[in-house]
Amino acid sequence: MDKGKDVRVRVILECTNCVRTGVKRNGINVNKGINRYITQKNRHTTPKRLELRKFCPYCYKHTIHGEITK
C-alpha cells in the first residue's frame, strides 16, 4: 500500500481549553505549554476530526482534545 492510502493514520490531539484561553493557575497566567497526545484513528470509520476527553496537566482537569494538522 502507498503511504497516503493507509487505513490507520497517526493523529495529534491538542487541548482546546489551553489554546483558546491562556492557562491560569490561582488567577495568574502561566505559559508552560500546551498538552498534546498522539494516537491513531481509522480513516474509514472516522473521516471527520477526532475529539476525545483527555486529562490536561496544565489545566488540572479533563478537557476536550481535538485533532490538529501536522
Automatic annotation (TrEMBL):
Lineage, top ranks: Eukaryota, Viridiplantae, Streptophyta, Embryophyta, Tracheophyta
Organism whose genome encodes this protein: Rhododendron delavayi (Rhododendron)
Biological process according to GO: translation
Family from the record: Belongs to the bacterial ribosomal protein bL33 family.
Superkingdom of this protein's organism: Eukaryota
Keywords carried by this UniProt record: Chloroplast, Plastid, Ribonucleoprotein, Ribosomal protein
PANTHER family reported in the protein's UniProt record: 50S RIBOSOMAL PROTEIN L33, CHLOROPLASTIC, LARGE RIBOSOMAL SUBUNIT PROTEIN BL33C
Compartments reported by the entry: Plastid, Chloroplast
Alphabetical list of SUPFAM superfamilies matching this protein: Zn-binding ribosomal proteins
Matches recorded under InterPro entries: Ribosomal_bL33, Ribosomal_bL33_CS, Ribosomal_bL33_sf, Ribosomal_zn-bd
GO cellular component: a single term: ribonucleoprotein complex
Alphabetical list of HAMAP family matching this protein: Ribosomal_bL33
Protein name listed in UniProt: Large ribosomal subunit protein bL33c
Main location: plastid
MF terms in GO: structural constituent of ribosome
